[in-house]
Structure formats: C-alpha cells, structure tokens
Amino acid sequence: MSARNNILQKLRSGLVGTTPRPDDFDERLVTEPWQYNPDDRIRQLRTQMEAVHTELYQVTSQNWPEKVAEVLAARNLGNLLHAPGTEHGSQLAEYWQSSGQSVELLTYDRPIEEWKDELFWNVDASVTGTLGAIAATGSLVVWPDRMEPRLMSLLPPLHIALLKASEIEDNLYTFMKRNNWSAGMPTNLLLVSGPSKTADIEQVLAFGAHGPKELVVLILEDA
Amino acid sequence: MNQRIPVTELTSTFRERATGALADQQLRTNFRTAMDSLMQKRADAFPDEDEREGLRELGNRIKARALSQLPDLLEQLEANLTANGVKVHWAETTEEANQIVHSIIEARQGTQVVKGKSMVSEEMEMNEYLADRGIECLESDMGEYIVQLDHEKPSHIIMPAIHKNRHQVARLFHDKLGVDETDDVDELIQIGRRTLRRKFLEADVGVSGVNFAIAETGTLLLVENEGNGRMSTTAPPVHIAVTGIEKVVQNLRDVVPLLSLLTRSALGQPITTYVNMISSPRKPDELDGPEEVHLVLLDNGRSGAFADAQLRQTLNCIRCGACINHCPVYVRVGGHTYGEVYPGPIGKIITPHMVGLQKVPDHPSASSLCGACGEVCPVKIPIPEMLQRLRQENVKSPAEGPKVKDGGAKYSAKERLIWRVWKTLNTSPALYRLFLWGATRFRKLTPSNVGPWTENHTAPVPARRSLHDLARNHLSGNGSAKGGQ
Ligand code: SF4
C-alpha cells in the first residue's frame, strides 16, 4: 500500500491551499448542436452509419424475421446465433420453424469456456437486440446480458442488430440522462458505430479487423 | 530505402537521429502523406468554429476540475471499482507496474498475453519485461502488431505503423508469417485477423489501456475501431487494464464532450466504432467476460508534473495525437527521432517528467514554437508555454533548484557568464559605448569559430562604424552616411 500512499500524498501536497474547481458543466454544448426533429432523427442515424458501411433496413416489429432470413440467404450463410430467452429471440425461432428455414439456429446457452473454439471459428452470424441508438454519431447502444453475452455481437462475421425506432435518441448525453446511467452501470456497456474497421496500413480503410465484417441494423417500427 | 530505425538500440542523440530521418525520402513521404490527411480529417470533423471552441473550453474545464481534486477522485474511483469487484493496484514506477502485472499472470500460471493498444504499457516496456520471464505478450492492434513483428516501436501514438507503407508491410508479413506477398490492404488485414484470432482464443490474460476512468460509477472507458480492445477485455479469463493516474474524470457525463473531442481530433471521426465501458468482472450468472479485472494506476513522473501548477496542465492530455499531426517538426523527422514512447509536442512536454531532462535534453528545444500544437489541442494545453518553461528548467543551475526531474541538464556556467556579461554591457551606457568603440576598431580580432553558429554560417564581424555612429552623423547633416563594411 505504500505506492498508493506515496502517490496520494505527493498529489495532496501539490494541492495545499487550493479548493476543487466548481462543476460548471454546460450541457447545452453537448446537446444543442445535436438535436433533430423526429423525421430527421432516423435520417441522421442512417447517414452516419451508412458512411461507415452499415446496412440499415426499416421493417416492422412483425415482419423483421423475414428480413433476417433474406440477409442470411443473400450471403449464403449456414448458421445464426440467437437468444431464444428474449422476446425477439423467441419471435425469430417461431418464424424459423413456421417458415421452414434451413439456416441452423444456435444458442449461447453455456459459458464461453465450453464452446470457445466453435464460437471463435464456426458461427456465421448473430442477431441481438439493442438498448437503442444515438442519432448524432450513428451509434447503437448495446447492453450485453446473460441472454445475449458480450462476445455474441463481436465474434461472428455478421452482426444483425434490432433497433426499435422509438428508442433512438438525439445524442449521447440525452441517452445517458434518460436511462440514468450515472446511478449504476452494468458489467459492460457498448456503443457500436459500424462494423469493425482499421486504417492502420497507409490509412486505407479496411473492414472486418477483429470484430464483425458486416453490421446490419433492422429498424423496427410498430406495424 | 526500407531502412528502419531500431529504437531499442538507440545510442545517438536527437540531432543525429533527426539528420538521418531528414535524409530518408521514403520516410518523409510516408509521414507527409499521413499527416496531411489527418489534418484535413480533423478540420472536416469540426466544421463549426464556435462549436469547436466551446467544446474545447468545456474539455479544458473538465480536466482542470478533475485535476483540482485528483487524489480524491482516485480514491473514489478505487472505492467504486472495488465495490464492483475490480481490483485496483498502484505503482509509482514502471518497474513496480510490471511486477504487479507479472504477479497477476503468475498467479494464473499464464504464459500467453494478448494486448490491446496501450501507450502506458509501452512506457512500461511490458512486452520485453514479460518476455524475459517466459511470457509471450502479443500486440493485437493491427498497427502495433506490425510494429512488434518488425521489432520496432510505434512512431505515432494513434497510428503506430504510420511510418510504413503497404509494400513494407507486405514484405514483413511475407518474411515473418510465411504468407504470399500481397499489396492488397484488405488481404493484409485479413491475414492479421486470422493470426490474431487464434491468439485471442488461446490467451490467458488480456491487457488494455484506458481512455477515461470514471470515478462516479467506477467505470473504465476504452475507444477503438478494430474490436481488438473488446477481444482483449472480454475473451481471456483475466483482464488487466493499465493507465496513468491522470486519466480519471469525475462524472459519467464528463466523458460526453471528451469523447467527442478525442475521436474528432484524433482521426476526424464523429465516434470510434466501439466505445467499450467496463465496470465489473463477469457476474455469477453471466456467460462470458473475464473472471478477474484489475486496474493498475501508474504514476511514473506524473505526480512530478502535478506538483507545479503551471506544468500540471500537461496532465490534461487525452492522448488524441492532434498536436503530433499538426507539428511541422514531427512531420519532417518522424516519430522514432524522439527516441521515447511519446513523440511530437506531447512527447516533448510529458517525457521530461517521466525520464528526466538529462535523458532528453533536446526535447524542449526541438520546436519552432509555431504554436500549431496549442491551437489544436482539444483540452487547450498551452504546449508552447510548457516548452518555454521546460527550456528554463533545462538551463537552471543546481543552486536555482530546477523543478523538473533532472532539470538543469543544459546548464553551462560558461554560457551563463557570457549572458551576464552581455546583460551588464547592454544595461550600462558607459560600458556599452566603450564596447562599441573597441568592437569597431578591433573587429578583425573576432574569432572565426563561434560554436554551433559557425557550423552553418560565416563568423560575424562587426561593422567598421556602429549604427549609433552612422545615425549621429546622418542627423547632424554631416554628409552622405556611407558606412558599413
Ligand atoms: S497534448 Fe493535446 S493535442 Fe496533444 S495529444 Fe494531448 S490532448 Fe491531444
């Protein structure tokens, strides 16, 4: 503990006779430039996300599983990781069965240690929910949990994210406020703004660095 | 011209390295191209000047507020992280930090470490430290991976491999990984992806840096584009985050403007692909994520900078790299010339506190004080002012008690004496006149070698008649003041 004490003591001696600066956070600076009327909100999100190679589709809360099947078929993929314990996961599973889809549905129902190899190499795609999105920067808010663990949106080459149109906020600040994040944060909270990318070689943009090569967002509107 | 500068073997001085770098046309082209593009991207990301300046002012205030209560915030951060199940460690030196990291790995009998991008781990030379103890520590950021594969050091804090072009990377991958040589950037990245994915799977421990540590909630925030940061902090059973003590901010909302400033200043992006907020290890009912999360808080000279109210501003830095991208010196000499972890303007103002001025005596003066760095800094660090201050500290005599580690590195009693004589001469009219009288008459006696000046210039010789003399002549109407040489 001596390193701790030494560091704190050194810092304290530098502050003798001073008082902490007041908190004069001006929230207008992080909200006013980033406000949109309802029609523009989705447009702003779309523009931002498409600029970084994200595909967005506006679908309904009823027919979206069809779109998932279509996206997978277009890429000729063999399996899809889903979470049957969630509302959207069970809706997808139902559709899959009733329409006789051939793409195999996988479930993240055991600790990563038990199927690391398979998840790392053999899962083609995943579909997860989101907490909402931020129009200003084109970001999805992803809150992984037991049903949809952290690696589910990271390892498969294709990530399909479901976003309710009503959950799109103007900017990060209002999103944070509305959900009262400062009162307590989950294990892991993510903002995801496109597929994984890098510009580390000659600043040439390449997608699919370590995470998903493709991100597809389905914006769900009430039918 | 594929010659590289092996930083680890550097024994030369800044000047010598700069001379070498300036003669390397390939290196200069690589940097010029990259920096021009980064400057343009930043400019495009801040189309509205008022918005930008308002945000910079806010960024500055947030950092100043955090520093004004730094020890309290560190304690609050520690308490909240501990309550969340994260173990917090403190290290005064890089040696201590390495020991902590090593003992955590040892306790798990780990042999493989995979690392997200972390400049603090570069400060620690963690890769080398662990390698000496039989632990493989692999970089997973594409740029860092390329640099590590070639036994180099990063040449830029955001773009570590910016000094290399695609052909150089292609050859490197061919030589080291046995793959076919390809100039296609997409293919090169896919080679890296496959190689590193295996490592993510096998690693016992993941190491990462931290962009902001939030005291209010006990949260570590990391930004990145590749997903390697998320991998390193999620896939292995243990996650160790290493960071400097200045990275703490008070409230969660404080990161909103800082995040925007960071990604726009660094890469011209409205946001990075991933903003990863970690507040605890895997909870009992969760199916992935590390079982253990550790945070190592490193001082390494930062408290030295903190001790002085002016130099404390150095710790505002959010490591965006904008000052580097806009620096006319950096773009010409490249990152490796600085010979230390942090290059460019930020390197010049932070490195002396870490390694001492004795080791980097040329750092404060390797600047034209053009002011570009201070103008773009998103948290408004007056970098030119810091440089001037460090120049003063650099020439203080031991008796004057320099305030910076190993200050007075360039103090010279002879130089001090010369300036004292100069001052006396210029503040006493009688002496000055006497000097002028002598200088103009014995002008042929000035030495032909006056130190560094005569390396590139001819030696100065006083004029036959002084300006005063000529002016007096002229004003008294005494003819056609023809004088001079
Ligand atoms: S000194 Fe300012 S401009 Fe330079 S890296 Fe730090 S925050 Fe960015």
Automatic annotation (TrEMBL), chain A:
Gene3D superfamilies: NagB/RpiA/CoA transferase-like (3.40.50.10420). Signal peptide: none annotated. Residues 43-220 form the LUD domain. It comes from the Bacteria. InterPro entries: FTHF_cligase-like_sf, LUD_dom, NagB/RpiA_transferase-like. This is Lactate utilization protein C. It comes from Marinobacter salinexigens.
TrEMBL record, chain B:
GO terms for biological process: lactate metabolic process. NCBIfam families: LutB/LldF family L-lactate oxidation iron-sulfur protein. Residues 307-336 form the 4Fe-4S ferredoxin-type domain. The keyword Lyase does not apply. It comes from Marinobacter salinexigens. The lineage of its organism: Bacteria, Pseudomonadati, Pseudomonadota, Gammaproteobacteria, Pseudomonadales. This is Iron-sulfur cluster-binding protein. The keyword 4Fe-4S applies. One of its GO terms (molecular function) is metal ion binding. Pfam families: Fer4_8, LUD_dom, LutB_C. Keywords: 4Fe-4S, Electron transport, Iron, Iron-sulfur, Metal-binding, Repeat, Transport. InterPro entries: 4Fe4S_Fe-S-bd, 4Fe4S_Fe_S_CS, FTHF_cligase-like_sf, Helical_ferredxn, LUD_dom, LutB/LldF, LutB_C, NagB/RpiA_transferase-like.
